[in-house]
């Protein structure tokens, strides 16, 4: 297997090029399952547009306001009034700390990143150690320097 196929899960360009020239289809088995298309059903988000749902929410809000302490009721009613009068509902702006100076070193920062990519399934399943093939005997698991034939020739 080639390095590109090990890391990306797709055949290398030199494998695909002859197939394109010969107009033969690329077999699905050559591409890792991660890249296979699956049917995804997306259900629409249910909005509380029905009058009954909105009415129920308002009744629950009214009950909570009435059950609250009288001096807090006026504060809650003021917040509701402000909400009704506003033209747009805007979420608060997030607190972002600006960093000054030169960016930190990538090596130190890389371990703390939350956006660090996790290895894909084909990278996890790939063998961690490279498979060596001996150029003297052709067997896998060792190279020419550790081959038994070479050691026999020295004796």
Provide a short characterization of the protein structure:
This protein has 7 helices and no strands.
State Rg.
32 Å
Q: Give the end-to-end Cα distance, rounded to a whole number of Å.
A: 36 Å
List segments where confidence is low: pLDDT < 50 over at least 5 consecutive residues: none
Strand count, sense and barrel status of the largest sheet are: none
Structural class call reads mainly alpha
- Average per-residue pLDDT, rounded, comes to 75
Q: Sketch the topology as an H/E string, one letter per element.
A: HHHHHHH
Percentage beta strand: under 5%
Shape: elongated
Output the number of helix runs: 7
Strand element count:
0
Q: Level of helix content?
A: 40-55%
Question: What is the topology?
Answer:
Layout (H helix, E strand, L loop, with lengths): L2 H6 L4 H9 L29 H17 L2 H16 L20 H5 L10 H5 L22 H7 L1
């Amino acid at each position: 297997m080639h390095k590109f196929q090990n890391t990306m899960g797709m055949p290398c360009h030199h494998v695909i090029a002859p197939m394109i020239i010969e107009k033969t289809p690329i077999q699905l088995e050559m591409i890792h399952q991660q890249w296979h298309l699956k049917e995804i059903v997306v259900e629409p988000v249910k909005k509380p547009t029905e009058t009954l749902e909105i009415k129920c929410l308002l009744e629950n809000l009214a009950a909570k306001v009435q059950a609250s302490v009288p001096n807090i009721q006026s504060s809650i009613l003021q917040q509701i009034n402000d909400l009704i009068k506003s033209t747009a509902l805007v979420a608060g702006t997030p607190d972002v700390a600006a960093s000054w100076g030169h960016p930190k070193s990538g090596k130190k920062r890389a371990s703390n990143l939350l956006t660090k990519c996790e290895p894909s399934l084909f990278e996890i399943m790939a063998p961690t150690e490279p498979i060596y093939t001996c150029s003297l005997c052709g067997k896998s698991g060792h190279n020419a320097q550790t081959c038994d034939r070479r050691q026999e020739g020295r004796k």
